[in-house]
Design goal:
This is Protein-export membrane protein SecG. By secondary structure, this protein is an all-alpha fold. About 70% of the residues lie in helices and about 0% in strands. It has three helices and no strands. Helix 1 runs antiparallel to helix 3. The radius of gyration is 17 Å and the shape is elongated.
Length: about 80
Amino acid sequence: MTLALQIILVLSSILLTVFVLLHKGKGGGLSSLFGGGVQSNLSGSTVVEKNLDRYTVLMVVIWVACIIALNLLQAFSG
């Protein structure tokens, strides 16, 4: 059980990193300091961006659930 949760945790961590890096920059951060904020956002959120947001939130939920489950298993395996 612990090994399966650890594998799921590693996979969800990798996918979460990829999904966060796929997000479009919103501006106002370091990217605008180096000229990345020049583009204007003329179109609204696309379906792809909304789905990417959903997948990112799902990965966060899975990641947090794995961490909590692993901590509970460790605490009660005394």
